[in-house]
Amino acid sequence: MSTEKSQTKAADKADRYWKTNLRYLAILLSIWFVVSYGAGILFRESLDTIEIGGFPLGFWFAQQGSIYVFVILIFVYVRLMNRLDSQYGFEED
Amino acid sequence: MENVQIWTYVLVGITFSVYIGIAIWSRAGSTKEFYVAGGGVSPLANGMATAADWMSAASFISMAGLISFMGYDGAVYLMGWTGGYVLLALLLAPYLRKFGKFTVPDFIGERYYSNTARIVAVLCALLVSFTYVAGQMRGVGVVFSRFLEVDINTGVVIGMVIVLFYAVLGGMKGITYTQVAQYCILIFAFMVPAIFISIQMTGNPIPQLGMGSKGTDGVYLLEKLNGLSAQLGFAEYTQGTKSVIDVFAITAALMVGTAGLPHVIVRFFTVKRVRDARKSAGLALLFIAILYTTAPAVAVFARTNLINTVSGKEYSRLPEWFSNWEKTGLLAFEDKNGDGLVHYAADPQKNELHVDRDIMVLANPEIAALPAWVIALVASGGLAAALSTAAGLLLVISASVSHDLIKKIFNPNITEKQELIAARISAIGAVCVAGYFGINPPGFVAAVVALAFGLGAASFFPAIVLGIFYKKMNKEGAITGMVVGTSLMLFYMLKFKFGLFDGGKIAVEGLKSQWWFGISPEGFGTIAMLVNFTVSLVVNRFTKDVPENVQAMVENIRIPSGAGEATH
Questions:
Q1: Hey, are the CB atoms on B82 and A40 less than 8 Å from each other?
Q2: Is B214 helix (H, G, I), strand (E, B) or coil?
Q3: Given an 8 Å threshold on Cβ–Cβ distance, is B83 in contact with A28?
Q4: With an 8 Å Cβ cutoff, are B90 and A28 in contact?
Q5: How far is CA B26 from CA B163, B167, B173, B390, B428, in A?
Q6: Which listed CATH number (1.20.1730.10, 1.10.238.10, 3.40.50.1110, 1.10.357.10) goes with B2-315+364-567?
Q7: 3-state secondary structure of B354
Q8: Contacts of A71 in chain B (CB under 8 A)
Q9: pTM
Q10: pLDDT tens profile A5-45
Q11: In chain B, where are the structural domains located?
């Protein structure tokens, strides 16, 4: 009886962990989509009317900015997940 | 040129000795070492190795040149070949690491509890890797022939011997640590000329900023280039010519294809823990981003330089590098109107200058009059880029044969020692096949590389993502999805890239108006991937449920450790 209970409890915990992970993914992938497909492609024309230094903004996102954001996104994910792992006691070693 | 050659021999000699030294030091003693470097690679080393693995001869030699002729449209490569790492880090790498086997077909075969699925995956992996590796060996030959004036074929053979040495001896372990060295060489070789030129043209030592700065004449570089391009009849540099939907589709196909390439995925099997897999994906992209944000700057500098130096000038008074590169056939001048001036124009009737895109990186140091050692550095960087990618691909091929086919399907009783021998023999076989294609390149290498990404997107990506994120995904759905997605991609490619059903290559141009949704074959991987997802999910609905133990396995790979073990 008690093992059964602890098993459902463990499954419950894993479930909550997974849901939080999915929420992080949804947020980070939305940003991923917005900077590349949004700013770099779909809305490039209108962003290009803004100039920063010598760069039309849409062009900058397409050839520079989106790549910087990609790098940042992965490191944010690494931090979020490391924190989540330790909250749930799922770290390795 | 003499001086440049001596420098090139010295630098290439030193770098090759380093690779061989590493190979001897890191011999593989077990299949685990051979396939995944023992699984104990640090995130930093894996990040560098992944970056070198990923950045091929094409990234190093061709990409900046390609962008300089495409302008804004070059963004499809820049975003496409970096954005895939976000997908890889968030959707694939941590879970595949937790799954903890040796190859991608391993995952597909076990997750979909089926040897059919495994064989389909092996075939896709082999197809993708062979098409890719042929181009790399060719790249090695081309660099040798241009800088050391040896025959291209001799160059290919030298490259084969080197790769053979460290891939066969060291397996993944040897490859990993040579790739770390190769990353350092290639990034240094790419950055040094870029920084020099950025200072020359804009006074800013950071190329990424120099690209958006003012030139020596006080006009913004991009603005000037837009003007120059328009004068010659080209599209404005920051505008491009492709349609929005095509740019969207190509970018998506390259991103998803990147995340579905087996030689990239397998690198994440080599780290120790799930958290290391995440971190090394981040580091890999950081290392890649250094080159990928510099390349568009190099493109702008090189294009401006080229137009300024050559366009409208007297042929007889052009600098020495022009005739040097004319000899290689990469630059050509044809005085159509006989006035002795070089007319460079978008209109093919009037244009008198032919420029091969590869020249933009290879000749850049000469055009900018940089010292001989910088030019030699570019040669060894190009070799490092080509060799590192070739080695990674060869390992996927040898593991597919010795592990997925021999050990898992034909002869499960094979001992560890025999499997290691089989792995080495298949690596030798793969090098020979790659060398053959390097010496006798099929005329469609470039087209086929685009196909490799399309296939990665259309075959592996949906099967792996569904395998992790949808635990009720069954084998019937996944296999049908992979087969339909891959076949559709092949069909579209054969029809619109090779004109196979309409009378061959000549028909390709005329078929453009028939592209589905206006999407080019390069971007079609996106559609094929969506079809794969849809077919998989529909078939899944009408076929048998997934066995309990497989669902438990999926729950297990979703968690880095701890509670995961309870579900076995």
A1: no
A2: strand
A3: no
A4: yes
A5: 14, 10, 6, 18, 18
A6: 1.20.1730.10
A7: strand
A8: 282, 285-286, 289
A9: 0.92
A10: 777 888 888 999 999 999 999 999 999 999 999 999 999 99
A11: 2-315+364-567, 316-362
